[in-house]
Amino acid sequence: MAFKRILLKLSGEALMGNVGYGIDPAFVEDVCRQIKGVKNLGVEIGIVVGGGNIFRGMKAEKQGMERATADYMGMIATLMNALTLQERFEKIGIPVCIQSAINIEKVAEPYDRRKAIQNLVDGKVVIFACGTGNPYFTTDTAAALRAVEINAEALLKATKVDGVYDCDPVTNKDALFFSSITYMDVINKNLGVMDLTAITLCMENNLPIIVFNLQGKDNMKKVVQGKRVGTTVRR
């Protein structure tokens, strides 16, 4: 394997599948089975999941809600998605635990870096919920932070496109695809791979980011096997 331990960033939007809002059970099943296939290769997997399929704090702020309150609501939405993933993992025989940056001990363990690493070593998938636990930070930043904290060898960002382009490939058929790009080029070109805080944190810790299409057949498995899939962001 190219990587022994990874952090997978799943957007909340990804869990919508084709239903347009909320959670698509069929798509969640597919994602969890992909992750099971990667885990069966001996890879340790942490997951940070977003909540945009349920609630988006930044959108609520634009509609007049106070930003910190909106962000906390968004964090709770990520926990709902984490519980969905946990339930599906358990049904397909994958040991899993949720660690939450906001203490809701009835449904998730409080975040503990040492315990998270031990759970990974013990063969569990660890889902990190509620972002960083602080408003004004995105789940992209939470993914970069948790990846660094657990000593992940790569941050995998699952998307609905094949990787990083110079503009939106959905609306522009002439969009230029990058198979590899530097952190600084991502920042200077304002490519929107992840927010600035997340990119900077990865750059400072020399953590590669691999952006790939989650819907491509066996793409996640190909990434951890070191095959050329998607876009790699590195120095």
Task: Write a short abstract of this structure.
The protein is of the alpha/beta class. It contains 8 helices and 11 strands.
Number of domains: 1
Biggest sheet: strands side by side, in what order? 4-3-5-2-1-6-10-11-9
CATH topology: Carbamate kinase
Broad shape: globular
**Given this structure, which CATH class is correct?**
Alpha Beta
How large is the share of residues in beta strands?
15-25%
Helix content: 25-40%
**In CATH terms, what is the architecture?**
3-Layer(aba) Sandwich
- What are the segments in which pLDDT stays under 50 over at least 5 consecutive residues? none
> What's the total helix number?
8
Main sheet specs = 9 strands, mixed
H and E order: EHEHHEEHEHEEEEHHEHE
Task: From the alpha carbons, calculate the radius of gyration and give it in angstroms.
Answer: 17 Å
Number of strands: 11
The CATH H-level homologous superfamily: Acetylglutamate kinase-like
Q: By helix and strand content, what is the structural category? A: alpha/beta
Average pLDDT metric: 94
- Roughly how many Å apart are the termini? 21 Å
